[in-house]
Fold:
Amino acid sequence: MYTAADIRLLAAAGEIGGQLCGPAACAVLRREYEVFGDARFERLSRLSPSHLYNLRRSKTYRTRRTTFRHTRPTTVRIGERRRPEPDGKPGHVRVDTVHQGDRDRVKGIYHINLIDEVTQFEHLGAVATISEAFLVPILEEMLATLPFVVVGFHADNGSEYVNRTVVAMLNKPHVPNFTKSRARRSNDNALVEGKNASVVRKWFGHDHIPQRFAPEEVNAFSRDVLTPHLNYHHPCLFATEIRDGNGKVRRRYRRRDVATPYEKLKSLPDAERFLKPGVTFAELDQVALAMSGLEANRARDELLRTIAHANVSVA
Structure:
């Protein structure tokens, strides 16, 4: 009784009020014929609501009325989108992940880079994958080894950090501020991004390191050798803010402002109040003197030789 032309006309009429329910759509079809005298709707004016749904399931109708809805982003209500505001006080840390290359479609290890914004205290770790089972224990260990109280945690919008498991981990030491980078604001996490290049890539390069070396060799080196070297022996540049004649604040990196992160921490006014309970500068001085800066380079070279030799043996 109803032709393909009728079904196409039914699909066109569906655009009048959207995809109406059966009785309402049939009322629109009757009005088009009886009120407005459109002869094309003569047969459709007698269409029943039940048979309307049969016609809507036909291939002809679905071809004309198929609609597509773009994927809608999921809103994650974890963390506050803003730039950290440390106000010259240590304890506002930033975190990021650095991937150590692929080989034959096999992922390499992942470096976890954690750095304090004010003092540039930096802690590195390594995991085989960035799943919560590997990532959270390393993060918890890294936060516990910082000498000062952590009051802020900032990450980009990666799901490895912006999740409820990390939030639960941060609640244990009562970290009050969890922030994440804003959209199209690349400077929000610029400090740790710069350290990824100037520290992680310079020490480990870009070559593939298999995942089996993450828990013992690479993570142990990062924790026991590289992290103390970076904090107690590696000089960093610290900016001095100067306001010019136009009132604009400019940053100047002066020679006398070069210091290690530990020296920067000790130079802060009343620095002892930022330390964790039970931690003293006398103990930290002993850590600073426990090894020289040259020992880290030798340990790194030995680590990379061990990895290269093991890769050749496996090949």
User: Anything to note?
Assistant: The longest strand covers residues 92-99. The CA atoms of residues 26 and 49 lie 6 Å apart.
